[in-house]
Amino acid sequence: QIMSIISFGFLQSMGYVMFLCSKSQGSAIVSIKFQFLGTVYVSSFLMFFAIRFCRKQIAAIYKSAILGIDLFLALLIFCFPQINLYFKNIDLFTRPGWSSYMKLEVGKWFYIGHLFAMAQIIYGIYVIYKNLRQEKDKKALQRYGWLLGALSLATIGLLQESLMVIRHGEYDLAPLCVGICVSLFFAAEYKKI
C-alpha cells in the first residue's frame, strides 16, 4: 500500500507540475486529469494504510466499494470534456515569464469526490487517534503522532484545493501537502522517525 500511496502522490504532483508548464489548452487538460486522478486514489490508499498500520482490517466488500467509487470518479475525470460531471470547463491562462494558471469550473461530482476523499482521510485520523490513546510505547506514540500530522496535512491540502476551485485561485497546495504526507507515511512505515 505504501507503493500505491507513493505512486498516486507522484501522479498528483507530476500532473500539477505538468500543468504549471502547460502552454496549450490541450496539455493543461491532460495534466489536470493526471493530477486529479492522483487525488482520487491517494486518499483511499492513505486510509487503507492507516487502517493496516493500526493492525486493523477492512472488509473486502468495503475496500472493493471504495475502489469502485474511485474508479467511477476516475472515469468521470478522464471522460472530460465529453462528460461534464466532474469538470465543466478548464480555462488556461499564461503570463509571460510566469507559470500557467487555470480557472476550473467544476460539477457536483468534483465536490462529492472531494468530500469522499476527506471523509476517508478523516476516518484514517480517527483510527490512528483511537490506537494512539491505547498505546504505551513511546516510539509507537511518536510514529502515530507523525501519521496524525501527515493525515491532517493531507486534509488541509484537499480542503485548500476545494476552496481554491471555489474561489478560482491560482495555485494548488494539495500536491505539496500530499507529498509531505507521503514522505511522513514512508518514514513511519520504515521506522525512520
Describe the structure.
With 193 residues, the chain is mostly helical. A two-stranded antiparallel sheet has the order 1-2. The longest helix has 30 residues. The chain starts with a helix and ends with a helix.
Report the end-to-end length measured between terminal Cα atoms: 19 Å
Give the integer mean of the pLDDT values.
85
User: What level of helicity do the residues show?
Assistant: over 70%
**How many helix segments?**
6
Strand fraction equals 5-15%
Features:
6 helices; 73% helix; 193 residues; 2 strands; mainly alpha
Quick recap:
The chain has helices at residues 2-20, 25-53, 60-78, 108-134, 138-167, 174-189, and strands at residues 87-93, 101-106. With 193 residues, the chain is mainly alpha-helical.
Strand and helix map with partners:
Blueprint: H1 2-20, H2 25-53, H3 60-78, E1 87-93, E2 101-106, H4 108-134, H5 138-167, H6 174-189
Helix pairs in contact: 1-2, 1-6, 2-3, 2-4, 2-5, 2-6, 4-5, 5-6
